[in-house]
Amino acid sequence: MMYLYALGFSFLLVLLLVPIVRAGALRIGFVDRPARRKVHTKPVPLSGGVAIYAGVIATTFLFLGDSPIFRAIAVGGALLVAIGLVDDAFKSSGREFPVWPRLLIYIGVSLIPSAFGITIAGISAPSRSAMILFSPGWAAFFTALWVFSLINMLNFIDGIDGLASGVCVISSFTLFAASLIGNQSVTALIGIALAGACLAFLTYNFHPARIFMGDAGATFLGYTLAVTAIEGTLKGATFLSLFVPVLALGVPILDTVIVFSRRLLEGKGLHRADNLHTHHSLMRWGLTQVQTVSFLYLIAAVFSLMSIVILLMLR
C-alpha cells in the first residue's frame, strides 16, 4: 500500500508543478527554439526537469526520510539540474554551452554515490559460491563509469516528444519490480516515485509536447536510475544479474552504442550533436513521432520483461 501512496503522491505533485514551471518559463522566454536538427516547429518551455526533480525528491524524503541514497540523489540531482538549467538557458538564447563545464560536473556527480557508500562492490559467480570483491578504488571507478554513462545516455535519447520520459516510466517500473523481487524496499520506493513523476510529466510531454524536461531533467533521470540500479541490483551482482539493469535501461544504452559506432565510422566527434540517433533514423524511414516513440516503448518493454525473467530465473 505504501508504494501506491508514493506513486500517487509523486504523480499528483508533478502533475500540479508542471503547469506552474511551464508558465514561468514562458513568461521569461526560457524555451527551446526550433532548429535544423530538432523536430519541433514551435518554441517549447524547457523547465520540466525542475518539476521532476521536486517530485522525486519530495516523495522520496516523505516516504523514506533521510538516508544515504536520498542524500546521494538529492545532492547529485541538484548539481545536475543546476548545470542543466544553465545549458538550457544557453539553448534558449540560441548559444551553445561549452562541453567542458558540463563534463566536469558530470564526472564530479558520478563520484557522489561512492561518497555515500553506494558502489558496485564486486561480482560473484552465478552460484554465488565465490565473489570477486573490487578494491575501493576500482569500486568507485566502476560506479562512476556506470553513473556517468547513464547520465549521458538518457540525455542522448531526449530528442522527440515523450521518448525519454516514457522510456523512464518503463525502466522505473522495471527497477521497482526487480527491487521487490530482491526484497529491496528502499530502491523499490525510489523506483515507484520516479515512475510516478515521469508518468505525470509524460501527460504534458507526449506529442505534441507542451513542455520539455531539458538537460536538467534528462540528466537527473539518468543519474537517479543509475544510482537506484546500483543499490537495487548491482552492489554485489552475479554475472547473469548484470543483465538486469542493462536490459531495464536497454533503449538508451542501445541507442548510445549505435550512435557512437556511427560517429566513429564517419569520423565525427563523439560529443557532437547530430541526426544519427535511432529515433531520427526511424522518422527518416517514414514513421511519425507517435509511431517512433511507440515502437521504442515496445522495445523498452521487451527489454524490461527479459530483465525480469532473468531475475526470476536467478532466484
Structure overview:
It is a single chain. The protein has 315 residues and is mainly α. It has a 3-stranded mixed sheet, with no helix packed on it. It has one domain. It has helices at 2-28, 48-64, 68-92, 99-110, 112-115, 136-157, 163-181, 185-205, 214-234, 243-248, 250-265, 278-284, 289-313, and strands spanning 31-32, 44-45, 122-124, 131-133, 236-238. Helices cover 70% and strands 4% of the residues. It is globular and about 55 Å long.
Task: Briefly characterize the structure.
The chain is mainly alpha-helical. 70% of the residues lie in helices and 4% in strands.
Shape: globular
> Rounded to an integer, what's the Rg over CA atoms?
19 Å
Strand content: under 5%
**Could you give the order of strands across the largest sheet?**
4-3-5
Low-confidence stretches: none
Give the count of helical stretches.
13
Largest sheet: 3 strands, mixed
The H-and-E topology, N to C, reads as HEEHHHHEEHHHHEHHHH
Number of domains: 1
Helix content: over 70%
The computed structural class is: mainly alpha
Give average pLDDT, whole number. Answer: 87
First-residue to last-residue Cα separation = 24 Å
Based on DSSP secondary structure assignment, what is the total number of beta strands? 5
